[in-house]
Amino acid sequence: MSDRSMYDLPRWLLAIGPVLVLGVVFGLIYLTSPFSGITMGTEASTLEILWMLTIIGAVAGIIPVAIGMLWFPFIRDLNPRYLHAFMALAAGVLAFIAVEMTEDVFEHAGDAENTALALGLGVAGVAGTFAVMYLASEWRQRKMASVEKSGLEIAYLVALALGLHSIGEGLGIGTYFILDEPTQVMLLVLAFVMHNVMEGPTIVAAVARERETPPFRHFMAMGLIAGGPVILGGWIGSFGQSDLLAALFFAIAIGAILQVLIEVADLIRFDAEAVLTRINAATFSVGFVLMFLLEDVLTELVLEGWLVPG
User: Fold this and answer.
1) What residues have CB less than 8 Å from 37, skipping those under 6 apart?
2) Helix, strand or coil, per DSSP, at residue 82
3) Which candidate, 63, 117, 291, 294, has a CA 20 to 30 Å from the CA of 47?
4) How far is 204 from 151, CA to CA, in rounded Å?
5) What is the torsional sign of CA 57, 62, 68, 70?
6) Rounded to whole angstroms, how far apart are CA atoms 28 and 23?
7) Does the keyword Translocase feature in the UniProt annotation (predicted)?
């Protein structure tokens, strides 16, 4: 289907289409329990382990991000006021992830053999990543001939920040996989599918303000950057879970998200008189609360047996 034919579809279909696709994917995972029979066994080779974690990581990371990016044609033609609101919603999603990962940093630091070292690495990870990305952003702006911010470049930054966060997700999957706990692996996959689908529109919201739609290869690249690191995290987690390493990865992701939040605010400010409007504040809150419902509430229902896979 061409880009133009996508825009010719009814608006209501563009709005609910990704939800329908997500429902099909989630339902298939829920009903078939594809990972319920996974056992490491003593004869599993390194290559077999990496291949299975690659498949699991793609299902948990790349596929849901790609589904979320299907909202691009819908948000592409939004009134600038509502587009800014959508970007504020994306910021709310990022803010929730940053808060959640802050808890993860303290949890893993507390479980590490040297808590002080882990906390120090956490602080260094946040500050160092923020500083590097801030300096890179300043350099990029000085090199640009126009004062206008590039939505595509910021979308790549968002994808990078989410990708760093995805490594932490993969660490959990890889750890449970190596411990022969297939039920926990599938619970994490279900949770991350629900969670990561919101990362898609978070990425493309900045691109929607561009006058021309970027080539498809950019969407593929951003989806891989955001969701692919789940695979990398799974590999790392399967070969040696380290609380010290986990705390550092989460801290790096937090620093990246903080810088991205500044970029998103600047992007809105370029087109609007004010960043903090009532509608932007409302959608920011919706994004934060929505991620809480998807990540914590629904995951808790699964763990308590209310949504037990068949």
Assistant:
1) 182
2) helix
3) 63
4) 9
5) negative
6) 8
7) no
